[in-house]
Amino acid sequence: xxxxxxxxxxxxxxxxxxxxxxxxxxxxxxTTDVKALALNDLKPKYVTNPDHSVYVRAVxxxxxxxxxxxxxxxxxxxxxxxxxxxxxxxxxxxxx
Amino acid sequence: xxxxxxxxxxxxxxxxxxxxxxxxxxxxxxTTDVKALALNDLKPKYVTNPDHSVYVRAVxxxxxxxxxxxxxxxxxxxxxxxxxxxxxxxxxxxxx
Lengths: 96, 96
What we know:
- The structure is a homodimer of 96-residue chains.
- Chain A is mainly alpha-helical and 96 residues long.
- Helices cover 64% and strands 4% of the residues of chain A.
- Chain A has a two-stranded antiparallel ribbon with strand order 1-2.
- The longest helix of chain A has 20 residues, at 64-83.
- Chain A is globular, with a radius of gyration of 15 Å.
- At the A-B interface, helix 3 and strand 2 of A face helix 3 and strand 2 of B.
- Chains A, B: It holds the Pfam family ComFB.
- Chains A, B: This is Late competence development ComFB family protein.
- Chains A, B: It comes from Savagea faecisuis.
């Protein structure tokens, strides 16, 4: 079975920085859109053995440049989704 | 649910060009290694709705440049695995 470790990493960033990302909507639809957008902008890191993902993540999270890139990609994806959410939540009350 | 359409596309290429790729071993372990290596060299194409993968694949397969890149990436991954297979098949009979 192959796994793209970046999926877990982006999921973790979304959870850890949820408040700072200021998503206008945190529904499943919107967070999934942010994840897909971010992953399409990040180099994949597939492993054939899920046990190896811990190692790959450690290398990633230990590299300041990778972390900075990761945060900027996720932040950009979050603002794209926030400016144009595709879910059917009603934003009129929130913004007035 | 998010899906990287490239996973299906690489799987399809492996099946369609199995003979031309001349993998020294076609066991699950080796084909999975080829898939992971190839995917790590290809820009991901995540979709949030699996029904959209058909559309993304059509655009990909309709672009000669993408198809050429895809075939060269998979061929390179296949030759890397063939020159250094990690599975425990015994290659001594095959090569003597």
